[in-house]
Amino acid sequence: MKSVVLVEAKKPLVIEEREIPTAEAGEEIIKVIACGVCHSDIHVADGHFGGPLPLVLGHEVVGEHPELGRVLVYAPWGCRKPDCRQCNAGLEMICANSHEAGVVDDGGYSEYMRVPSRDYLIPIGDLDPATTAPLACGGLTAFRAVKRTLPHLNVPNAKALIIGAGGLGQFAVQFMKKLANVELTVLDMADDKLDAATELGADHAVKELPAGVKYDAIIDFVGAKPTLEAAAGAVNRQGILVVVGLAGGRLEFGVGVIPSEAVLTTSIWGSLDELKELLEFVRTQGVNHLVETIPLDEAQEALDRLRRGEIRGRVVLTVA
Ligand SMILES: [Zn+2]
Ligand SMILES: [Zn+2]
Fold first, then answer.
1. pLDDT digit string (tens) for 116-142?
2. Among candidate residues 227, 246, 266, the one where a domain is terminated
3. Mean pLDDT confidence for 248-265
4. pLDDT (mean) for 259-280
5. Distance, CA 271 to ligand 1 centroid (Å)?
6. Are residues 309 and 240 in the same domain?
7. Which ligand is nearest to the CA of 167?
8. Whether residue 276 sits in one domain with residue 262
9. Could you tell me the distance, in angstroms and rounded to a whole number, from the CA of residue 81 to the centre of ligand 2?
10. Average pLDDT over residues 95-124
């Protein structure tokens, strides 16, 4: 089978011919149909995190299973040990010993892929593989982050702010407008991304925050020091600031430093149950996201273009 392999950090991916994996007890092998290219793939390719190399990237995978048909893969695989509190609560993405597809274990930039349990395969029926693949990370991460803001939006004249209108931000705009009665502002620097946010339902799309407006919920999909500081300055008392972006910014924290009783939290990927819930949401409500497809062989090109900010929505590798 053909696999696109990260052999060395910061070096171009290498196309290799490999043996098709065989399933050990409990495992499943799927034939990959489509695999999304996620911004975190760049961090793995650059060696910022991830398991030992060589590694096949890719954690947004739709494949064909011989009995289940087309499936979406839940990719943050926890330890599933009886004494793991997070795995027992169904929060495998927070497990201290998780081994994610395409980050620690081999993922979907390949013609075939090993999955440790059938539990992680969710049949997608007649949903389109290329547009469904990005739900596994981009969609799910935005879905969980939005759901965590909802208790704070159950107030009169609720206002929310989304920082960053790339792939995840565009998902979040739609989830928030459908799940909450909220006046939604989106902050980004790129005109095309602001246009996309407006098309998808944002009430305001801005390059600079209006002075004095406070938001009951803010999701920061960038996570750089300037965006975090802008967010902490704009969150309402008792509001929530959810940080998703991996840009590595830090904030001052303390009584009198942040607005009184504001909740500051990170949000990590999503649970298996949330991914099933998201698929149901997509089936019933629909989700509108821009997907560009590129053949598997051009995975490096896809990563490069994502790195240069040239992808307006999500880019998905298709496997012939
Ligand atoms: Zn665990
Ligand atoms: Zn991802």
1. 999 999 999 999 999 999 999 999 999
2. 266
3. 96
4. 98
5. 12
6. no
7. 2
8. no
9. 24
10. 98
Q: Is 84 left (phi over 0), alpha (psi -120 to 50) or beta?
A: beta
Per-residue model confidence (pLDDT) at position 289: 82
pLDDT of 80 reads 97
Predicted confidence (pLDDT) at residue 290 exceeds the cutoff of 90: no
Cα-to-centroid distance, 52 and ligand 1 (Å):
20
Q: Which of 266, 282, 307 is the last residue of a domain?
A: 266
Ligand 2 centroid from CA 39, angstroms: 6
Amino acid at 176: M
Q: Distance, CA 40 to ligand 2 centroid (Å)? A: 5
Give the position of tokens 């030992």. 52
* Total structural domains within the chain: 2
In this predicted structure, what is the pLDDT of residue 307?
Answer: 93
Torsion 188-194-200-201 (CA) sign: positive
Segment 57-78 mean pLDDT: 98
Q: 3-state DSSP call for residue 28? A: strand
- My answer on whether 125 and 46 are in the same domain is yes
- 116: CATH: 3.90.180.10
What is the extent of the structural domain holding 179?
A: 140-266
Ligand 1 centroid to Cα of residue 128, in Å, is 32
**Nearest ligand to residue 171 Cα:** 2
Residues 186 and 237 in one domain: yes
Ligand that comes closest to the CA of residue 133: 2
Are both 244 and 277 inside the same structural domain?
no
What single string gives the DSSP state of each residue in 186-246? EE-S-HHHHHHHHHTT-SEEESSPPTT--EEEEEESS--HHHHHHHHHHEEEEEEEEE---
Check pLDDT > 80 for residue 320: no
Residue 281 alpha carbon to ligand 2 centre in Å: 20
| CATH code of the domain containing 226 | 3.40.50.720
